[in-house]
Design brief:
TIM Barrel, eight-stranded parallel beta barrel, homodimer, two-stranded antiparallel ribbon, alpha/beta
Chain lengths: ~300, ~300
């Protein structure tokens, strides 16, 4: 099962973190931008090529120590279809380096349309007698506001194609409570959503105690993470909000079980823009990213201790 | 304001409907598929070119009687970046024919990432000294589960670039009630979301009584549409669920005010696949789509009466 593979990679690297690849052009070192603009002009194609080269440099610097990447679809869409080509090429490169790929798209719809999203990101599409992967991912983030009609096509895809999903439960942003903390018969909406995920997950069982339907639970809300872990023993957490958004390793410790399993913590800008924060030469962006990824791993592992896969 | 322009187009054509462009390859007439496969092979490019030709044929047949198109992003993503190129080219073509373009993407995220989506679909992106429209739309559908952090970057874009958004409130699918009908202090979640939209809308005021933040309200739930219209007097409704999903013109009448304004009703498969349903020659797909669009218009106008724009 897909999340089992993620857990195994986390254990191999003793590192429950994922590098978010959310590349704005401003984040890309100037020498890469200039090279691509010289070749392709100041065009969407030039921008998309620059993002790809930046991403590849980051992946090269990270793949032996970080188990997964999480490209955020918005940053690729922002450069049009050329940007979407870079999304595909980034995913392909990450996969070739053995990394687990989580596409952060927060996709949502119903029935046949959700099947189309599932096919786009987790499946294969038929064209005449041929089949193609439109985009490449091991897992996709999705929004469950529409209820199980929006999730069922994904569960089928997860079962058939060995894929996973992460459903938004409690997001990391300041206003996430406007809806998610409202209580329904005494139960907050984020718990309600979490419980639906624990139910959906039963259809995609895993061997390490966690099922194939994970949730997104923001590091910026440690109390809610603790509560979610209590009520969702078989649900894996994708945890944004560490670093740039202000949460610390302590804040996320409650997401993890006694074996150090149960979650993966994302850092995007912290890693991508490490060379800016460390004020080093921009040619050293990849080394700076690696240094930050190691610092983050060590900080989080300091809280968790050891990660042990036990096939129970 | 963007939705004012939509309302004016609806009044000009006396037609409060939008043609959904959700093109699966199976919907495309064989003669178009064969032509494109002959030229580009059974590839994603071949598929994407076939979708584009199909869409252009539909737009040619509809633009003088239907005010808007709603391409559903999922069906373009399903054909990879080549499909996204077809999304762009479809939007560009619809705009060149004077149609209002609603991209149905149900996008959602927070802060800088939501800004990236807003830029992608409603804005312009800077590349060096140049600026480009990554995709082309007058309005975008979005999911408000993350609260106002996810909406504010869009409001800014709506104000600056004359664009609109439609936020999911009550979706048309059978399981939409799992979360949306749950009550918070006696108020269902879909109403709560609707009220947030009415508030957000105040920042993008319109001249015909409706603001720039609309909602999605499914035709399959007439009671909820009626209730939403009562409590959201300044919110415009995008109404899916008519036709293929089973709702009738009577079901949506409550969405409209005494001037016949207040909503736009979507039909996707009903129009795109009209030639299959009417069992006519596939070369006549465009004429069949036009015939169905006229039938739908007449049926809905039969309930509404007349559409009168009054600048009050």
């Amino acid at each position: 099962m897909s999340l089992d593979r993620l857990i195994e990679k986390i254990e191999q690297k003793q590192n429950p973190t994922v590098a978010g690849l959310d590349p704005k052009l401003d984040y890309v070192p100037e020498f890469i931008r200039e090279k691509c603009f010289d070749k392709y002009g100041e065009t969407l194609k030039g921008a998309a090529k620059a993002l790809l080269e930046f991403n590849k440099g980051l992946i090269d610097a990270l793949y032996d120590i970080v188990p997964a990447v999480k490209p955020q679809a918005a940053y690729y869409e922002m450069y049009g279809f050329q940007g979407m080509k870079t999304l595909y090429k980034t995913q392909e490169y990450a996969r070739s380096k053995g990394m687990y790929v989580i596409t952060d798209g927060k996709r949502n719809d119903i029935g046949a349309t959700m099947e189309a999203y599932a096919t786009a990101h987790l499946g294969k599409v038929k064209v005449g007698k041929e089949e193609y992967e439109p985009f490449i991912a091991d897992a996709l983030t999705v929004n469950g506001y529409l209820g199980s009609d929006g999730i069922k096509p994904l569960l089928k895809m997860c079962q058939e194609n060995d894929k996973g999903i992460f459903v938004l439960a409690k997001t990391s942003n300041p206003s996430s409570g406007e809806l998610q903390d409202k209580t329904v018969d005494g139960v907050p909406v984020y718990e309600l959503m979490g419980k639906m995920c624990e139910e959906w997950g039963k259809e995609v069982p895993g061997v390490y105690g966690y099922n194939g339907v994970g949730i997104v639970a923001g590091a910026t809300y440690p109390e809610q993470i603790k509560r979610l872990r209590e009520i969702l023993p078989h649900t894996f957490f994708l945890i944004p909000g560490y670093g740039a958004q202000g949460a610390s390793a302590k804040d996320i410790a409650a997401a993890f079980d006694k074996n150090g399993l149960g979650g993966i913590v994302n850092s995007s800008r912290g890693i991508m823009c490490a060379y800016q924060k460390q004020k080093c030469d921009e040619h050293e962006f990849a080394e700076a990213a690696r240094k930050e990824a190691i610092r983050m791993r060590d900080e989080i592992m300091g809280e968790i201790g050891k990660i042990t896969v036990s096939n129970s």
